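@channel sequence for tomorrow's demo:
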Amino acid sequence: MRRAYDTVAKDYAAYLPDTRAEAPLDLAMVDAFAAAVTSGGDTRVLDAGCGAGRMSRYLADRGCRVQGVDLSPSMVAMARRDHPDLAFTVGSLTELPYPDDQFAGVLLWYSIIHTPPAGQARIFAEATRVLRPAGHLLVGFQAGEGTHDVSGAYRQFGHEIELERYRYTADEIAVQLAAAGLREVCRLVRRAQGRERDDQAFLLATA
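structure tokens (generated this afternoon):
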């Protein structure tokens, strides 16, 4: 996965510079997450799997003090280039480079999708570890079952990579959240729109 995103980072940043790919309902969930975080006074948010930083910028514009982390050094380089006022670090979601209780919010925006079912528990355990008591977590992902080869999407940019994503149901992710000690606050599952292949799901939880 790291090699694939290192390969496509520059084109990814150019193709997805902001939140134009998100539907209004998607952003409404992010807005609810940002409001929940900032209402508590502690505005520190971890954008876990931040990519080129587009959601980090969106959260920062809504009053969050954002730290981004991503497995791909090239993606982090793009994030630093395009958002020089924000902080970005190279790191793994399964071993976050932060102490316990560090953040009031953790965003997992389509950053669990390349991890198979057996690895999901570790991601949510780490996200919960760095989340302070009463903090909030928002996770977004393609809803459904099975895997999808997304390598073809990058051939239009001249990249030959290997990259799969895994679909999960909202109920499956709710189980992961509960197992990590989080309480689900609300969820949204919407139907595929435009060129999307899958339904999209978003779960907001609190520690």
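heads up for whoever presents: The helical segments are 2-15, 24-38, 54-60, 73-82, 117-130, 170-179.
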